[in-house]
Amino acid sequence: MSDKEFPAPVKYLDDRLGIGKIGRKNLRKVFPDHWSFMLGEIALYSFIILLLTGTFLTFWFKPSMAEVEYQGSYSLLKGLHMSEAYASTLDISFDVRGGLLMRQIHHWAAVLFIAAMMVHLLRIFFTGAFRKPRELNWVIGFTMLFLGIIEGFIGYGLPDDLLSGTGLRITQGMIQASPVIGTYMNFFIFGGEFPGDDMVPRFFIVHVLLIPGIILLLVSVHLFLVVYHKHTQYAGPGRTNNNVVGYPLWPVYTAKAGGFFFVVFGITALMGALMQINPVWLYGPYNPAEVTAGSQPDWYMGWLEGSVRIMPGFESHFWGITLSWNLIIPALLIPPAFVTLVALYPFIEAWITGDKREHHLLDRPRNMPTRTGIGVAFMTFYGLLWIGGGNDLIATHFGVSLNNVTWFLRFAVFLGPVLAFWVTRRIAISLQRADNDRLLHGLETGVIVRSPEGAYSEKHTPVGGYEAYTLTARDRLLPLDIGPETDDNGVRAPRRALNKLRAKLSGFYFADAVQKPTREELEEAQAHGHDADEIHELTETETYREVTSDRS
Amino acid sequence: MSDEKLPVVKADEGHGAVEVAEPIADPGIEPHEYRITDIDPKAADRVERQVSAMFTLAGVLALGSCVAYFAIPRDSVFEFGPLSGNANNMAIGLCIGLALFLIGAGAIQWAKKLMVDEEISEDRHPAHSSPEQIQDITEAFKQGAAESGFGRRTLIRRGLFTGLGLLGLPAVVLLRDLGPLPGRTLYHTIWAKGIRVVNDVTARPIKPADMIVGQLVNAIPANLPPLQEESAVEYQNARAKAAVIVVRIRPTEIRTKPGRENWGIDGILCYSKICTHVGCPISLYEQTTHHVLCPCHQSTFDLADSAKVVFGPAARPLPQLPLAVDSEGYLVAQSDFTEPVGPSFFERG
């Protein structure tokens, strides 16, 4: 058969779907290679694992709160009254072969799904991959993270065990604290008073259809955009803003990415086999009058829990109404404000820098000290709240006072991020200086030379051409200039106050940033090195290996 | 801040970067380095054997998982050091997990060691449409809009917006029956005058003499257990509000709130067990300080001082249930709680 015709089955499809055209554009599509690009892949693969294992679980799970007497094979709970949801979860765990495995893979994959999305988000943030043209894909990705967290939390609530019921009770209390509509929302969501018997069936359909459906749609758009924009790449020799250098989809990434799916699935399966997670049979059925000390939500809810835990007990009572600031602030204002800021960050940064170009080369975090500082400040804020979510466990494990831990965090959540911002920015700037040093003064060789006059100096050798290029392959970033107050005709520029603010923020954004050396500076440094750090090409006897052996 | 030292760029230039000649010219992609498997056919064959062994072993393990499924009894237990669990579950999971992992590891090894690893470069194109495309699309859109008369025929336009807008209403109204209106349900519990306080495990009524100083009992109203036979939902809902703790404190240590002088019996006090923060059942009692702590968010209440908040995010004391003793000498409620129990809500006042 000649190459001018497809084999029969492919021809059948091509005649009807035109798959040849799609394949021609995409089969040899180039993807750059870097370990940090696989984080999003982990999220995608754990989502697929969640769909597969979740479907398996629905074959036995009964999303009903009707009361039954447990007669399964877990003898400790035999004869107890419980909801069908809890009883069927026990059946999956003890009477369906492979059921516990699937439950545990499902839970591990859920934990991994959200963790991978979050680390992926951090990678995108710190390398500036969210910049034009990818701002909307950032928002889509962020929406998936947000939905994923809700999805995870609802799934955790479905077995109707004591721990999950406690989580839902807390959520119910938070909803009820919403001003004006709280009580009504509560009655509509739970079908009346808490707990009622509607929550499990309602949350079930949200968990297995509504949210996964939306995530599936968003994943498709997310990936389509990755293909359309082509993947970002790190700066390096031959890697420019106008090309993408790497390996082709067919065959290299088909094998690598396809193989990586199996690796992720394999590892979650091994975790499901060997590591116990959410042993609901130990918690017992939900009872609104009982709770276990040291109750902890899944890790991704920890920061919300902490936000609520460290808030002092403020409440206002006036005109016959109650405003529970102890919940409104930590649960209804701070988390939405936090996530909105993160979701809108690409637009905020673009406004401050005034940068309207397309970016396909990734930043090294050190080269954007303010952004990196902001990122670490956000992580610190999140981390401190997360610590707050376990304040009781920290107190008991480290033998410190719970009250002191809480009081410390009440201040630390405000001071910590500021400190983290400042320290990170200084570190980033120092690293930039170190890079410039490397360019201008070369590498320390460890070879000490004694001059005829008796002076000692260390030989420096220039960094290699590829590395030197990589170090300089970044923008010169400058603060925005908003122009004069009035134009040549004396007319005041419009929106002056806003623009002044913008210029101020921009000045702050680029303050102290170290610019890469110019060509002249580089040539001068190489031409007139002074005694202490003279740059030399190494002589024949001083091999590269010799001078770097202490580094490698 | 040394920002004034930096050169600046004009806002209307549209970006925050300046184009100065690059200090170092782009040397182009590094030359390709050959791998041992590219040069040495023996090494390549060795990798081929590795990959094929991984794939084959994966198949064997897949079969093994099926054998484990049928051969290992579902209630057998595996114990080895810290590793213990259901043997059936573990064997199936180990086989499937390793099989999946080996397929993946084999594919990756194949890609990394045997597939051509010369980097190739592909050009990018701006995300936006070309000027010709923009012109074509704008014209097509304008033509369609003109042909529809959408801009000109304002009556149609208004009608359409009104109709579509109002269709949002049924989408909301139809959800009305998701739940009943709150009404006064949050203000009441099933406690009432004369209802006995019973132990929440044994359902036995409690006599003052049964309680020693320092003791705390989890209790429920006597009319709660019969509800379970009637309706499981009503029972759970009632229990979520009516659960109480009964505590006996040395009367000299109690600071009674004015108006509550006759709410306790010889230092026996009864409080709602439901935290006023978000409704967790408070359950950690410290006898020496008479504090109870909610395990969810660590709100701490002083039971000797009308359960006022001494620490944590809760804002209100636990509601107190006025106690009395009936003719047979058992603890009973004087009335329902005098305020809503559980977490705050807007209309609460």
TrEMBL record, chain A:
Gene Ontology BP terms: respiratory electron transport chain
Pfam families registered for this protein in UniProt: Cytochrom_B_N_2 (PF13631)
Membrane topology: Multi-pass membrane protein
Cofactor(s) annotated in UniProt: heme
Organism name: Kribbella antiqua
Reaction it catalyzes: a quinol + 2 Fe(III)-[cytochrome c](out) = a quinone + 2 Fe(II)-[cytochrome c](out) + 2 H(+)(out)
Molecular-function annotations in GO: metal ion binding; oxidoreductase activity; quinol-cytochrome-c reductase activity
Record carries keyword Transmembrane helix: yes
GO cellular component: plasma membrane
Segments passing through the bilayer: 42-61, 105-126, 138-158, 204-228, 257-277, 327-348, 368-387, 407-424
Region (Disordered): 519-552
Protein's name in the database: Cytochrome bc1 complex cytochrome b subunit
EC code: 7.1.1.8
EC class (word): translocase
Subcellular location: Cell membrane
Lineage: superkingdom: Bacteria
Domain Cytochrome b/b6 N-terminal region profile: residue ranges: 9-235
Key words of the record: Cell membrane, Electron transport, Heme, Iron, Membrane, Metal-binding, Respiratory chain, Translocase, Transmembrane, Transmembrane helix, Transport
Automatic annotation (TrEMBL), chain B:
Keyword Transmembrane annotated: yes
Topological relation to the membrane, as annotated: Multi-pass membrane protein
Membrane spanning residue stretches: 51-71, 91-111, 155-175
GO cellular component, one term: plasma membrane
Domain Rieske: 241-332
Assigned keywords, A-Z: 2Fe-2S, Cell membrane, Disulfide bond, Electron transport, Iron, Iron-sulfur, Membrane, Metal-binding, Oxidoreductase, Respiratory chain, Transmembrane, Transmembrane helix, Transport
Classification of source organism: Bacteria, Bacillati, Actinomycetota, Actinomycetes, Propionibacteriales
Purpose of the protein: Iron-sulfur subunit of the cytochrome bc1 complex, an essential component of the respiratory electron transport chain required for ATP synthesis. The bc1 complex catalyzes the oxidation of menaquinol and the reduction of cytochrome c in the respiratory chain. The bc1 complex operates through a Q-cycle mechanism that couples electron transfer to generation of the proton gradient that drives ATP synthesis.
Source organism, top-level taxon: Bacteria
Organism the protein comes from: Kribbella antiqua
Protein's name according to its UniProt entry: Cytochrome bc1 complex Rieske iron-sulfur subunit
Subcellular location: Cell membrane
One Pfam family from the record: Rieske
Chief location of this protein within or outside the cell: membrane
Entry-linked InterPro entries: QcrA_N, Rieske_2Fe-2S, Rieske_2Fe-2S_sf, Rieske_Fe-S_prot, Rieske_Fe-S_prot_C
Family: Belongs to the Rieske iron-sulfur protein family.
UniProt entry tagged with the keyword Transport: yes
Cofactor(s) the protein needs: [2Fe-2S] cluster
Molecular function (Gene Ontology), one example: oxidoreductase activity, acting on paired donors, with incorporation or reduction of molecular oxygen
